[in-house]
Write the structure tokens for this entry.
Amino acid sequence: MAKASEFHDRMLSLGLARVSEAAALASAGLIGRGDEKAADQAAVNAMREQLNLLDIAGVVVIGEGERDEAPMLFIGEEVGTGNGPAVDIALDPLEGTTLTAKDMPNALTVIAMGPRGSMLHAPDTYMDKLAIGPGLKPGTVTLAMSPSERVSALAAAKGCSTEDITVCVLDRPRHEEMIAEIRSTGAAIRLITDGDVAGVMHCAEPTTGIDMYMGQGGAPEGVLAAAALKCMGGQMFGKLVFRNDDEKARAAKAGITNFDRVYTRDDMVTGDVIFAATGVTDGSILHGIKRDPGLLTAETILMRSKTGSVRRMTYQHPTGK
């Protein structure tokens, strides 16, 4: 029989889904209202309240920022009742605040949980990311390859033309040269405005039509994406990108000693993990919050890396109670 102090992922998984659902439902009234901060704060408050109901001794390792920048769910904050297993928590209470404020696709609430010490304490810097889906040989693509080499290598591994490959990329000026190089291969690009956790998840979900994700985005989101792929299958690589000495100092404070290291998925998330995400706005992975008179409906994906199980759950919440 498992001790209370052990990380019993099966028992904790439904509780984690409730945390994700609560954050999504709390932000539902702010979809399309143009107020990013209010939407984020509503999700943060709800997620924190639900986390503190769980019988865990949790520490937020990927959160809203440093303590002086975020009053709630800051990095290092202790959550839970303190009466259960010691766990790491990685979260983004509202991944896609702009998407929510503008009622654009693929806004999610996202949270992952693993045993204490199992997740990379990624600093708030950029990370150069590369991800592909499951069923491919290790080393099929690498960060050392150029963007065009990655497309060609993936096409060869899949036995198709480069024109059959679709790459997901954040639409940012810093990616202009990379986008041009990818398009020179004949590959298609799906540009996203925000939400690169969902972007990475796309390459492991066959229904999205995405084969690969690449580009620079937030390092904390990279750890969350790695947690998702740990459950879904697929390969991911990340390398921290520093713009100044202050960002290097943040990395050193987080315990990073090798600034040139390329992290694999299993370097970023070393143990078994539970991952939950709830749709806020409609997307290619999850339906967003549906509003009917007196009722809110949410869809959540709940995954466990230990078993590879993926559950999709629909939750109906009466608004008058």
Observations:
- The domain at 9-117+273-318 is CATH 3.30.540.10 (Fructose-1,6-Bisphosphatase; Chain A, domain 1).
